[in-house]
What does this fold into?
Amino acid sequence: DTEVTQTPKHLVMGMTNKKSLKCEQHMGHRAMYWYKQKAKKPPELMFVYSYEKLSINESVPSRFSPECPNSSLLNLHLHALQPEDSALYLCASSPRGRGGYTFGSGTRLTVV
Amino acid sequence: KNEVEQSPQNLTAQEGEFITINCSYSVGISALHWLQQHPGGGIVSLFMLSSGKKKHGRLIATINIQEKHSSLHITASHPRDSAVYICAVAGYGGSQGNLIFGKGTKLSVKP
It folds into this structure.
């Protein structure tokens, strides 16, 4: 298995909802990443997990809450989002320290 | 000045043409990645380079570490190659896994 699988592919949520994005890989990669991408912009790093521990939080608002329950799974919990949070959320993984990035196909999030 | 600069920003080509996209960077890197993103889609990793040249099908990527420059070439371009091509670099040590992205080159190949 050489893929990063993200679910759901599309999500529409209200500003009072709580939802979660899921990311899964079975390549044995020990670094996993969440990126946010707005239209026509490059991805922006949100969080990095290394060996299931949060190593980087790029000053992301607390309404985004990451979780890494095991080495294959990465979640992003969403609560009380704003319309400006609407974006493509990308997950990626890499063998820590040895490059070889693999990206998921993303979750297209719309906050209404 | 951005740490990763790509040129051109937009590129329109006729089917069959040879295409070159350039990437220059100003930081020390452990690797350079070329990525492809179709409209509304996720990102596909095309190449990871730390030296020399790599080829995959009609795609060729080169890197010159001394000049801090990389190129992505597409031979015999096809409309399905239409996408945004992104250059991204990975640093050293603790930042080795974190990518710095260029702004991308939007390629349109006309039939």
User: Anything to note?
Assistant: The CA atoms of residues 26 and 100 of chain A lie 14 Å apart. The radius of gyration of chain A is 13 Å. Chain A touches chain B at residues 6, 31, 33, 41-43, 45, 48, 50, 55-56, 88, 90, 92, 94, 96-97, 99-106, 108 (CB under 8 Å). Chain A has a mean pLDDT of 92.
